[in-house]
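Appendix C: a fully annotated inverse folding record. The material below is reproduced so that readers can follow the format used throughout the book. The structure is listed first as tokens, followed by the designed sequence.
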């Protein structure tokens, strides 16, 4: 059903009278006068050439570092050229939400393939078609665990601070208690998690590798949480799953994370991809879209949107989630990336990232940058002390075209991926040595 715009003054006046108004301005009476814009004062239009020149001028203000040693939730990985080649095809790039889903078989198949790959990657049973980003996925997972007598969520203090903030924001409006257990030496103490659990706890959210790069003792955390009758939500770095134990192997109930490392560039912060997978028992609580496989009347393989008769579509006032859409293009990007890399390629990326990070940690230790996490295992990020004020050091590195680690709690959170060569790491160490001298 389209919109009707009255074309004459008489028609507009008749419509205003029908709703008891005399002028169009009255429609905006609720907007405070102080924030109304009476005149936009727009400049004259520009030609295509002039717009291109203007955009180039604005883009020149961006600074792209050739050498990056910062992660903290967004990572620079090698992206095979086939990823962009496939996802930039116009039939994928311009495809929007399939309102008549079952005749959009190409879009549905791409989502189905993505869901399949995410289940294989995480070792879980079911995946949705994606949500907006990793932090949203974590917050949505909390509401999946709600029960009549259980609503509180216990969150590890070693989780990304931005994710904790989003979880708190989601929970505030529903008066869901959020208990944050402080990190113990860059990691989560399973005993502290256990002490925070009670009969009102619905879920525990832990990230591994955590914000500081440390691998958590998930076996102990899962055992303690399940013994208390609560669900476990695990936040994961998808690249790490090419090398490390999967959430499914740990026995967690829901696995979530940020899918940006799977073929998406840093892009100054987005768009990114939130992935959500869970056990089959929780399938009907999974928010957003889910694509299923079936057969048509002729027995041919086909795809449909499934499990759609849920609250967010038919009873929004009772919904546990209002997410009805997904990040289809980003999900396809992740799918193409995983297909291009394969299990062997993903493992190589994970191994190289970990090896480069451990080499950098060893070289930094020689300069007095001690590991805050002690002997705890880490993946490709780690927090160190700094013999020089962190912001000062990072500023000096930027002068040399190096984006250093992120200043955190008086130290520096460093990161390496397969993109950081030994020569690049050695140059970083050389520059830091000169700064210290």
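Designed amino acids, in order:
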């Amino acid at each position: 059903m389209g919109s009707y715009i009255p074309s004459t003054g008489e028609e507009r006046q008749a419509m205003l009278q029908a709703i008891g108004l005399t002028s169009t301005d009255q429609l905006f009476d609720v907007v405070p006068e102080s924030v109304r814009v009476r005149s936009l004062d727009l400049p004259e239009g520009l030609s295509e050439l002039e717009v291109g020149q203007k955009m180039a001028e604005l883009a020149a203000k961006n600074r792209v570092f050739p050498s990056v040693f910062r992660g903290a939730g967004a990572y620079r990985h090698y992206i095979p050229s086939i990823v962009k080649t496939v996802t930039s095809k116009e039939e994928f790039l311009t495809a929007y939400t399939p309102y008549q889903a079952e005749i959009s078989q190409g879009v549905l198949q791409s989502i189905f393939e993505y869901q399949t790959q995410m289940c294989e990657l995480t070792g879980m049973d079911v995946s949705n078609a994606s949500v907006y980003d990793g932090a949203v996925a974590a917050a949505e997972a909390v509401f999946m665990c709600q029960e009549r007598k259980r609503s509180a969520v216990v969150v590890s203090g070693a989780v990304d601070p931005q994710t904790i903030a989003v979880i708190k924001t989601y929970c505030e409006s529903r008066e869901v208690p959020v208990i944050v257990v402080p990190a113990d030496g860059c990691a989560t103490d399973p005993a502290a998690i256990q002490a925070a659990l009670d009969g009102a706890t619905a879920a525990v959210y832990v990230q591994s590798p955590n914000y500081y790069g440390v691998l958590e003792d998930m076996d102990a955390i899962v055992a303690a949480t399940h013994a208390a009758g609560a669900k476990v939500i695990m936040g994961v770095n998808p690249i790490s799953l090419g090398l490390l134990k999967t959430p499914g192997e740990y026995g967690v109930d829901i696995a979530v994370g940020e899918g940006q490392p799977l073929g998406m560039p840093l892009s100054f912060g987005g768009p990114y991809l939130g992935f959500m997978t869970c056990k089959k028992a929780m399938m009907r609580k999974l928010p957003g879209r889910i694509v299923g496989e079936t057969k048509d009347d002729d027995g041919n393989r086909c795809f449909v949107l499934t499990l759609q008769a849920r609250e967010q579509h038919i009873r929004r006032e009772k919904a546990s989630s209002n997410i009805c859409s997904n990040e289809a293009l980003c999900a396809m990007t992740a799918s193409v990336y995983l297909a291009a890399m394969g299990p062997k390629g993903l493992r190589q990326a994970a191994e190289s990232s970990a090896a480069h990070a451990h080499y950098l940690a060893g070289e930094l230790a020689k300069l007095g940058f001690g590991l805050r996490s002690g002997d705890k295992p880490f993946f490709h990020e780690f927090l160190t002390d700094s013999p020089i004020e962190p912001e000062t050091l990072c500023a000096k590195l930027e002068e040399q075209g190096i984006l250093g680690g992120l200043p955190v709690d008086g130290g520096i959170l460093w990161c390496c991926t397969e993109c950081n060569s030994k020569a690049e790491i050695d140059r970083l160490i050389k520059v830091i040595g000169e700064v210290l001298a």
